[in-house]
User: Fold these one by one.
Assistant:
Number 1:
Amino acid sequence: MSDWEIIKKIIYICNFINIFYVILSKFKNSIINLNPGSQPEIQMVNKMKKLKIIFPAAIIMLAMVISVTSCKKKETTTTEEDTETNSASDNMFAERISNDIENIAGEVSDVDTMSQYRRNCFEEQKSIFTGCANVTRDGSTKKITVTFNGQTCLDGHIRSGSLTLDYSSSTFGKVHYRTPGFTLVVTSTDYVVDGNKVTINKTIKNITNAGFNPANTNLTWSITANISIVKANGGGTITWQANRTKELLNTKDSTVYRGQSLHIMWSKADIGLNGNTSGTTAGGESFTANITHQLVRKMTCVPNSLYPNRHPFIQGKIEFTRGPRATRYIDYGNEKDCDNIATVTVKGVSHTITLQ
């Protein structure tokens, strides 16, 4: 409650008391006129004297109570601790889902296989699981379909449903992810990851200049994405829209980018992301997230030996803003540290997040 509101309340109370006092005075005068010098007159006069003392005192006490209450409310508001990190975690979760799809699309459209996600023949022979996905390419429609069978992929995540990769809008008949002018539209059908239903519409374009020199120019793609994630166990729905650029940071490494005639060695790739996102958290609040330092994902980094093909971001920073709350600063760390840890800092206080 502001000081002006307190003053207005006191004015209202004073006006009420004045009106009451006038009415009481008239009542007293009517009694005196009827019975001058009577005992009721004397009693009324005494009561009026007491009221003259009690009313001002009551006003002062009421003002003090209102002021104290207002101060307590202000104090509570300014000292309230802000430790919420779930909204930032929602963004990181959507980020991971989106980039997994991006990596799947990149690998599949470049080599027609999924070595980073699907068990190879030797591994299948020593495991009770078969491969987690089947890949088919239709050259006539220029579409690739990735169908998951609900089993665990090499990165430890369980996927079902399918992804459709349509490259029919590529310029000059480009068919590979590595080729400048290649365009890929990714959509999903009943796609579920670890019980979370994902609906996606994503467009990826290779915007590298034709005839580029890999010694001084990285392969680069533009990415626009619109994703909805219905979280498992009634955890709410995340919506996530992105505008990004992606780089193959070690394009100059001839063991990674081996020219246009051979596919990229994705198992050795260093990937960088820049751009921004927006959407709503699982709690229904709007947010924006801007990458302030490039996100880096190294496919050679394996922080958990149980999941040899799980490669989290290990470097980069994001400024995450949700509604009227303070900005959350997400830090994925230093690229020298291969781990699955990130920190979320709120008002100078850091909280540790484990990446999945």
Number 2:
Amino acid sequence: MRREARPLLACWRPIPGTLWKRSAAGSLGRASVWVALLGLVALLAGLAPLAYAHLCDDVWKQLDKIILKPEVTSLVVKDQATFKVLMQSNMDRAMATALRLVGESPAFDVTVTPENGYGPNIDPGVRYEYTVALKVKPGQRSGQYPLSFRLVGTREGVVREVKALEMGGALGEQAAERGRAATEPAKAVGTEPSAPQPPATGAPGRKSFFIHSFVAAGLPVVDGKLEEACWRGAMQCTGFTNEQGQLARRRTQVLLGAGPDTLYLGIGCQGGTGDGDDQQDAVAVYLALPDAEAEQVAITADAKGKVTVKKLRGGEAQEVEASSVKGVVVVSQGAWFAELAVPARLLGQQSLGAESRWLVNFVRSCPVAPAEVSFWQGKPGAFLEPSAFAEFRFLP
């Protein structure tokens, strides 16, 4: 809350006249008092701007007044595409830092100009335009892919995330197909000539995502390192929301890919590596089938390296042998990572193919101060409802 400085003299109350002697000594005493008082006023006047700046100029507490918006909501990319992302600050003063936009996608090479962003000052009420160029990565199959952006600035020499933006997904087509006639209709989301299109299903408004197979690139070794080439083409889930409906303070990222009968997950968590048994930052993966939403499987990995599996039904939880899911957790400075291999049989299926559909959500519970619960899909208070889960479909 901004506080106006109250003039010092407005608080001044004259000393009762009975205390003032009308003598030469008294006049001299009064003169000395006034000189000292004027000196004090001058000193405080000089310090006031510094104090005011310290209390009110921390624009990093006004980051909710930064608007970041793409000029498109969906796009089809055959080989490359260009669009703009708009940024505007509605703060009450200029922001003394350069703001750079960073783009990330498993399917596209993302280039943003101006490369170094705008700055060194961001003026309020001014619209800034970042130009984003996408180019399909070699050998990338058509499908729906996430496209995320981070607006970053520098504070006290440390690069910090100012705002994050998650687009609903970009559609990419193989570079080998770019020779087709431009008049030929684009393929449906996530389909290929060799892959049948699964029928639309699920709750109204449910988001659907397509998981590609890791078979061609080679299946990963579950060791928590996430170093294999297959992870570079994995689907990404980011942009977690906290229970206040705001972007989570700590960044969480989940990568996904599939084997013939296994769902592979790579989880990365910023922060949450405090000491003590009560500091167990954890991510829970909730799974269900569309025709059996009430019967869920919850797989939890925490920063201490523990992986638990539970079956949920009707508010009751039954713990399952943890060995049914292979998982490894690796902790590094300021972050921790988990790699999981979830067999299809855990949901009563023998394989993952074009007909397979899973309902999925991710929830992170971090008790490390400031404690926070964040989730990938859904709304505050309802993210554990099956209707909030996203639908995953699997492509060869």
